[in-house]
Design a protein that fits this description.
With 270 residues, this protein is α/β, with parallel strands linked by helices. The chain contains 13 helices and 8 strands. The chain is 49% helix and 14% strand. The protein binds pyridoxine-5'-phosphate (PXP). The site of pyridoxine-5'-phosphate has 18 residues, from β8 and α11.
């Protein structure tokens, strides 16, 4: 029984709550309210497994002081999203967060619009993956769910990848099924190569369940929708509802086996 309980806990898809947009609202007025740290505590109370924050080069939302405070005052693991630059590397090495997710960054973009070109940027990224890894920071690469990008992550020796779910989130019907399959196939390929796959971007109450049902995924990082929904139902309820929807996908995850291998007595669909 204890073994089964342990297995269930291990198999549970983790929820990382991205609090960037609490800082976006705060910065609109330049004062201290609403405080992203308070949001991190609320997310923790509501069942988040981690906090994610993106320190952008232009500091448009999260600030250096926010990172200092998050590192000092929250108990949950911090996933620091960062561009592959010397400035961000120095900040990550000074703080040593639990994880660092390397993301592409363009100043003119409104959000992180696509994944990293891990294949095309091998030489540039290798340096950051190595430095972060040597400091015991779990490095993740935010990439498109494609065979080419997973192969590049394998070559780089990244322990984690996060698949950009933006395309999936922004299409409907048959196109969405195609995008979902790309994510599922890339997640299976990652696990086959010893990489832990995560996913995020554009996930909402309406589209999260099929992604959460992909058995190989270990973590979802969700921000904009949760913060927006908090306006109507409060942040804790917003996180709780997302957690509940993710848990509803558990039976389907188990059908395939959370490690991506068929569970005993089951046959994986071909
Ligand atoms: N994961 C990464 C790497 C991100 O950069 C972001 C924000 O763009 C997210 C997850 C969360 O996306 P969203 O705010 O759309 O939920």
């Amino acid at each position: 029984m204890a073994g089964k309980l342990r297995q269930a806990v291990d198999d549970r898809l983790r929820l990382g709550v991205n609090i960037d947009h609490v800082a976006t609202i705060r910065n609109a007025r330049g004062g201290p309210h609403p405080d992203p740290l308070r949001a991190a505590h609320a997310a923790a109370n509501a069942g988040a497994d981690g906090i994610t924050a993106h320190l952008r080069e232009d500091r448009r939302h999260i600030t250096d002081e926010d990172i200092d405070r998050l590192m000092a005052e929250i108990d949950l693991p911090l996933n620091l999203e960062m561009a592959a630059t010397e400035e961000m590397l120095a900040i990550a090495l000074a703080h040593r967060p639990h994880a660092a997710c390397i993301v592409p960054e363009r100043r003119e973009e409104r959000t992180t619009e696509g994944g990293l070109d891990a294949a095309g940027q091998h030489n540039h990224l290798a340096y950051f993956v190595d430095k972060l890894g040597a400091a015991n920071i779990r490095v993740s690469l935010f990439i498109e769910p494609s065979e080419e990008q997973v192969a590049a992550a394998v070559k780089l020796g990244a322990p984690v990848v996060e698949f950009h779910t933006g395309r999936y989130a922004h299409v409907d019907g048959e196109q969405r099924a195609v995008e979902l399959k790309r994510i599922a196939d890339a997640a299976a390929l990652a696990v086959k190569n010893g990489i832990e796959p995560h996913a995020g971007h554009g996930l909402t109450f309406d589209n999260v369940v099929p992604v959460a049902a992909i058995p190989q995924l270990a973590e979802l990082n969700i921000g904009h929708f949760l913060v927006g929904e908090a306006i109507f139902i409060g942040l804790e309820d917003s996180v709780r509802q997302m957690r509940k929807l993710m848990d509803e996908a558990m039976p389907e995850r188990h059908l395939l086996g959370a490690s991506g291998r068929p569970a005993p007595g089951r046959t994986a669909p071909s």
